[in-house]
Amino acid sequence: MGMESSPEAPQPVRAVLQAVGGWIGRLGRIWVEGQIADLNRRGQTVFITLRDPVANVSTRVVCPSRVVTATTPTPEPGARVVVHAKPDFYVARGTFSLAATEIRHVGLGELLARLEQLRKTLAAEGLFSDSRKRSLPFLPTVVGLVCGRDSAAERDVLENGRRRWPAVRFEVREVAVQGDRAVGEVLEALRELDDHPDTDVIILTRGGGSMEDLLPFSDETLVRAVSAARTPVVSAIGHEQDAPLLDHVADVRASTPTDAAKRVVPDVGEQFELIAQLRQRARRVITGGLERERAWLADLRSRPVLASPLHEIDRRTEQILGLRDRARRCVHTELARAESDLEHTRARLEALSPRTTLARGYAIVQRADGSVARSASEITPQERLRLRFAGDSLEVTAGTAHPESKDE
């Protein structure tokens, strides 16, 4: 329940601080993890500044010197420890501190287990997926470099980068690369370079070191910041065998700072050589194509139809004349055959014609109604008949019929 107060009835400072001390006192003992930033001994009392390993937050730890001497090895500034302490509020000065009763070092095995668990969590979220990784620009205009102050890693990257492409520019941010301030400074440098409009790629680098020295580059906050960066990030932390979590989330992992410079900056000599090879290859391809086309044209020109166009016209003329003569012969042959057939047909018709029979001395006897009399018995006496000869006809009157003897 909160303290009641008003402008007319305010609470005195002592009452407020005593209430705060009472609330803090009810928290009980707690285990706290952090990194020792400062350690001072004053008689039998030790005053420690315990800093959060990620955030820029620290608190004061007070303990008897026997608590420190009981810890093996003796804690020193920079050590990662776990403190069992009771929150305490000093009312007289209004200061907060932790009254420690036990200090333990964070073991390497425990750190590795935590890192492995964090790695699995981040991998499950897809932060290490290859599909998220971006390709590096071919020729970066500005390269952002985050490195230790006056470090060998910085010299390696700058010297190798400028040796490979003298025109490349570097935006260098020197930061703490180990200790309690490393994560905060690296994050700030990363954000600044990522927001820089000309930065094409960012290199995070430092030299080798122990497992504890490289812990800042496995920090979850830094890993997520690299994953969210808009600019491609190259990780060059430690040596080949070192593998902080930053290597998994970076777009490209370089084994050394020198390797990072080679991956980010192309070699001008190699590029000139490549251009020369490509030009020679293009020249060979074009020359070969022209030679093939020239040979094809020469082959076309050597063909008879192009070498002597009139010869082809003469040949075609001969073909046409030959076809015309053949057509004429065919027509004449067909006409002669048709004429012969017509003559044969005419001859057969004339042979079968009654006129031909009449021309041999025969006559046709026709009655008045035009019918042909085929027998004398069909004709009555005094019947008017017409005798048709080959060239003319004669009107006669029938007489008496006389039967013809078989001997006649």
TrEMBL record:
CDD domains in UniProt: ExoVII_LU_OBF
Top-rank taxon: Bacteria
InterPro entries: Exonuc_VII_L, Exonuc_VII_lsu_C, OB-fold_nuc-bd_dom
Segments forming a coiled coil: none
Domain OB-fold nucleic acid binding: 14-104
Compartments in which it is found: Cytoplasm
Enzyme type, top EC level: hydrolase
EC number(s) recorded for this UniProt protein: 3.1.11.6
Residues in Exonuclease VII large subunit C-terminal domain copies: 127-314
Catalysed reactions, as listed in the record: Exonucleolytic cleavage in either 5'- to 3'- or 3'- to 5'-direction to yield nucleoside 5'-phosphates
GO MF annotation: an example: exodeoxyribonuclease VII activity
Family assignment from sequence similarity: Belongs to the XseA family.
Assembly notes: Heterooligomer composed of large and small subunits.
Entry function: Bidirectionally degrades single-stranded DNA into large acid-insoluble oligonucleotides, which are then degraded further into small acid-soluble oligonucleotides.
NCBIfam families: xseA
Name of the protein: Exodeoxyribonuclease 7 large subunit
Source organism of this protein record: Lipingzhangella rawalii
Phylogenetic classification of the source organism: Bacteria, Bacillati, Actinomycetota, Actinomycetes, Streptosporangiales
